Amino acid sequence: MTQSFSGKIKDKLIEAKRKWAKDGRLLTGTSDAARENRLPPGQRLVKDWPVLDLGITPHVSADDFKLDITGLVENPLSLGFVDLLDLPNVRARNDIHCVTSWSRYDNDWQGVLALTLAEMVRPHPDAKHVLFTAHDGYTTNVRIDQFLDEDVLIAHHWNDEPLSEEHGGPVRVVIPKLYFWKSTKWVREIRFVKEDAPGFWEERGYHNNADPWTEERYG
């Protein structure tokens, strides 16, 4: 069941991160637009996988999971967990980069390519952006070309184990080229739209584009 942020989110955490955006915290001014380094500027390498959330962990079982793909598409879909497993699945390895300054190398994922879902729903030519909504009400946004990059996944396994609840299981988005707040946990809806709409963190001072190598942490 979808939960609401109201009265449940970590207000102090949100206010702190809003202040980070206002103050430009963590910005180094050493952007590596050429992607010459594996570790983006201002990041530190970690071996664990830190858990960051807003104090809400929706309890969505695989049996109850549903993903709606809607908006400006010819063939809207509603997929259950088993439906995702029945689609062509791939394995992929990539790095993830969090705006709070940590990066983790060599994450092994299993899931469905965003390109596969796009082939099924067939976005209209005027669809320019993609909006994500999570089972806890969280939202974020990307351009359609960012979503349809060849390495973007709708993932259900990490390092050969089912994706844990704390990390967005049973299913999350993985967009490795962007800061990880764009990779929606507990994804419930993927909506193709013409006009962009800022999501939860974008409305609170975070950058709309979120490229780690050019330090697009804040807008």
Automatic annotation (TrEMBL):
<protein>
    <submittedName>
        <fullName>Sulfite oxidase-like oxidoreductase</fullName>
    </submittedName>
</protein>
<dbReference type="InterPro" id="IPR000572">
    <property type="entry name" value="OxRdtase_Mopterin-bd_dom"/>
</dbReference>
<dbReference type="InterPro" id="IPR036374">
    <property type="entry name" value="OxRdtase_Mopterin-bd_sf"/>
</dbReference>
<dbReference type="Pfam" id="PF00174">
    <property type="entry name" value="Oxidored_molyb"/>
</dbReference>
<feature type="domain" description="Oxidoreductase molybdopterin-binding">
    <location>
        <begin position="57"/>
        <end position="201"/>
    </location>
</feature>
